[in-house]
Design goal:
globular, mainly alpha, 210 residues
């Protein structure tokens, strides 16, 4: 099934895990430690109520500093074109801004409707982040990414983007098949992806320093 189809059919836990996993893989861009989102993952495992999700979400935001997070406007989440990316922002700047918006846009009350919008936006944003850090221009890959999400294909995609697409699919499939029992493996998949992205970010920083 395509990524879009999996998101459309996922339940609340699957949607929360999908969005959280995308955000977790992008933590190297946020400057937070690798444990920043662990309380939210733990809440999904324990099946905690919406109030606990909201409290843990605010704690994560507070550790990064609320002033550093950017609230999305309308359907702007994930957009890295033109002014939405900060005008002449570099690919690295745009990727950081997208990651911050992913956290800022997380719904404080985990309803199915709100989580579905967030999970879909996180999917798009994370793929664009990987495209940008893989060397794509801000608007170069939008059509390709949309097609890949709709059709469930990775042919012709840059390796970094193809791997991220596969991870998103795996996380949703794990939750669809195993429910809470799939969360441990989903977290492992996300941890692997975070290590890959951290290596990419570190390499770009070394190149920038010259």
């Amino acid at each position: 099934m395509s990524l879009v189809g999996l998101i459309a059919q996922a339940d609340e836990r699957g949607l929360a895990a999908s969005g959280l996993a995308c955000l977790d893989r992008c933590l190297p861009l946020l400057g937070g430690d690798d444990e920043l989102l662990r309380p939210l993952w733990a809440g999904l495992v324990d099946g905690e109520d919406g109030a606990a999700w909201g409290e843990r979400l605010e704690q994560a935001r507070g550790k990064l500093g609320d002033a550093d997070l950017e609230e999305p406007v309308g359907d702007e989440t994930g957009d890295v074109s033109g002014d939405a990316a900060g005008g002449n922002a570099t690919a690295g700047d745009a990727a950081v801004r997208l990651a911050r918006r992913m956290l800022a846009a997380a719904p404080p009350v985990p309803s199915a409707a709100g989580l579905r919008v967030w999970a879909d936006a996180c999917s798009v944003a994370s793929l664009r982040i990987h495209a940008l850090l893989g060397g794509a221009a801000p608007d170069e890959s939008d059509a390709a990414l949309s097609g890949a999400r709709q059709e469930g294909r990775t042919e012709g995609m840059p390796p970094l983007v193809a791997a991220e697409l596969r991870r998103q699919v795996v996380v949703l499939e794990l939750l669809a098949e195993h429910g809470a029992g799939g969360l441990r493996r989903a977290l492992e998949v996300s941890t692997e992806g975070r290590r890959v992205l951290r290596a990419v970010v570190s390499r770009r920083a070394r190149v920038k320093r010259g």
